[in-house]
Amino acid sequence: VSPANNLATLTPETSGSRFLKALSGETQAVPPVWLMRQAGRYLPEYRELRAQAGGFLDLCYTPDLATEVTLQPIRRFDLDAAILFSDILVVPHALGQEVRFVEGEGPRLDPLASRAEFATLKPEIDLGMLAPVYETVARVRAELDPSKALIGFCGAPYTVATYMVGGRGGEEQAPARKLAYSDPAAFQALIDLLVEASAAHLLAQLEAGANAVQIFDSWSGDLPPAEFMTWSAAPIAAICARVRAKRPGAKILAFPRGAGAKLKAFAEAVPADAIGLATAEDRRAAREAVPAHVALQGNVDPIALTVGGSALDAAVDGVLADLGDRPLIVNLGHGVRQETPPEHVAQMVARVRRAG
Ligand code: CP3
């Protein structure tokens, strides 16, 4: 990354940001800290607002409410970055697929199981449908302290495709994987559509004021190595290229959850500024796998965060000891769990800040 590129994204108001410094390859005595799913049901103020909002998607598409929810954890914990409150499934929604969030069960989509059913999707993403999301980005950026970064995001094409084909996540990746073997051209066409849609969605968030974007690949870790490169790494690399073609120097974080031994090949293929490590990743191996100028993000165990006390301190200290001598963004290895006592997040932030 050339210095000129860094200047393109480090605006005056954000150049003091620990988070953006880490993304520019700086090693810092006090590294930045934020948490995946830092807004959400473990916060009483979220549950209260959520109860007034109707459905989860209504919350995502109402800028007043989504702005408030994005800022809730920043007010409480003084984290280094806010992440837009939205969901990875707004992309299939804006491609014309039915998306519902079922209370206590998670997302449900009308599965698109075949090439013929893909024809029901729009040929490109309807960014107009997502205008409230970009308005939320602009409002959050305007309200956020200048020292804090705002992260936009999308799901990786493979992860989003597993929901679109299977109708849900988890074990039901099987439908997407079966389609990838039985009709690779059809699956590739869906992935290609998602590359274009995701790049456009990320660019719109950057245009609206996001300082960096993260690509969440929650399910590709289960793929065998060759399929992992085809369906996870290559499409994510293509998104990076499309985003940077329009915005040179755009800061991009990639989170290939569960990549494990495939991390080295992923880091070689994907030109991300930071790579997120899931809870089970071996940090020593990750150091070797990822070039030293690329920031690592992670990977405190979200279960240790639920327990707090000395177990949490030890988990944070382990990350700092293993990765503190290179560009680092302290985070969890996956999202904050619902049963997490909010005080434990305050404890984690204090432990990181004490590092300096
Ligand atoms: O990190 C943040 O705080 C930003 C907002 C955010 C949400 N989802 C809000 C949300 C982000 C970045 C996501 C990403 C996301 N969404 C992923 C990738 C990361 C991961 O967790 O693996 C995935 C796979 C999804 C799809 C999704 N959305 C699932 C599986 C669920 C149900 C799980 C659950 O906890 O309910 C959702 C719903 C969802 N997305 C909630 C939140 C706060 C809970 C909705 C509610 O309040 O009822």
TrEMBL record:
<comment type="function">
    <text>Catalyzes the decarboxylation of four acetate groups of uroporphyrinogen-III to yield coproporphyrinogen-III.</text>
</comment>
<protein>
    <recommendedName>
        <fullName>Uroporphyrinogen decarboxylase</fullName>
        <ecNumber>4.1.1.37</ecNumber>
    </recommendedName>
</protein>
<feature type="domain" description="Uroporphyrinogen decarboxylase (URO-D)">
    <location>
        <begin position="32"/>
        <end position="41"/>
    </location>
</feature>
<feature type="binding site">
    <location>
        <position position="334"/>
    </location>
    <ligand>
        <name>substrate</name>
    </ligand>
</feature>
<feature type="binding site">
    <location>
        <begin position="37"/>
        <end position="41"/>
    </location>
    <ligand>
        <name>substrate</name>
    </ligand>
</feature>
<dbReference type="InterPro" id="IPR006361">
    <property type="entry name" value="Uroporphyrinogen_deCO2ase_HemE"/>
</dbReference>
<feature type="binding site">
    <location>
        <position position="218"/>
    </location>
    <ligand>
        <name>substrate</name>
    </ligand>
</feature>
<comment type="pathway">
    <text>Porphyrin-containing compound metabolism; protoporphyrin-IX biosynthesis; coproporphyrinogen-III from 5-aminolevulinate: step 4/4.</text>
</comment>
<comment type="subunit">
    <text>Homodimer.</text>
</comment>
<keyword id="KW-0456">Lyase</keyword>
<dbReference type="Pfam" id="PF01208">
    <property type="entry name" value="URO-D"/>
</dbReference>
<keyword id="KW-0210">Decarboxylase</keyword>
<comment type="similarity">
    <text>Belongs to the uroporphyrinogen decarboxylase family.</text>
</comment>
<feature type="site" description="Transition state stabilizer">
    <location>
        <position position="87"/>
    </location>
</feature>
<dbReference type="GO" id="GO:0004853">
    <property type="term" value="F:uroporphyrinogen decarboxylase activity"/>
</dbReference>
<feature type="binding site">
    <location>
        <position position="163"/>
    </location>
    <ligand>
        <name>substrate</name>
    </ligand>
</feature>
<keyword id="KW-0963">Cytoplasm</keyword>
<dbReference type="GO" id="GO:0019353">
    <property type="term" value="P:protoporphyrinogen IX biosynthetic process from glutamate"/>
</dbReference>
<feature type="binding site">
    <location>
        <position position="87"/>
    </location>
    <ligand>
        <name>substrate</name>
    </ligand>
</feature>
<dbReference type="GO" id="GO:0005829">
    <property type="term" value="C:cytosol"/>
</dbReference>
<dbReference type="InterPro" id="IPR038071">
    <property type="entry name" value="UROD/MetE-like_sf"/>
</dbReference>
<dbReference type="InterPro" id="IPR000257">
    <property type="entry name" value="Uroporphyrinogen_deCOase"/>
</dbReference>
<keyword id="KW-0627">Porphyrin biosynthesis</keyword>
